[in-house]
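Quick one: structure for this chain?
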Amino acid sequence: MQITWSVFHETYSESEVKKYAPKEAGVYLLWVKLKSGEWRCFYVGLAEDLEIRLLDHLSDNEENECVKEKVSEYVCGFQYAKVSKQDYRNGIEKYLYDHYSPECNQADPGGESMEVNLP
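Got it. Here's what it folds into:
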């Protein structure tokens, strides 16, 4: 399946999310910049409202300690794709999880993987 990924946002901040993330359903990737200058995906997720979910990860109420540490202590970026169907979001999230093995996802999302183009 082909999906349209947003441009890569090298700054994961409240202002950047509010400026670019849509109030639409989709999947997203959170990235951390390594000392080498390369980027590594540390979290994959899905959301009914991408803007709200991406802002949630930046809030003081973030419950995932791994995500909280990354976004508060390192240079992070984000990327998303709008995906309206819940079944597709579930399958895409599983595929991205299997592909990137993100360190901050606390559990395998399970379900059937749906292969998509990677950003």
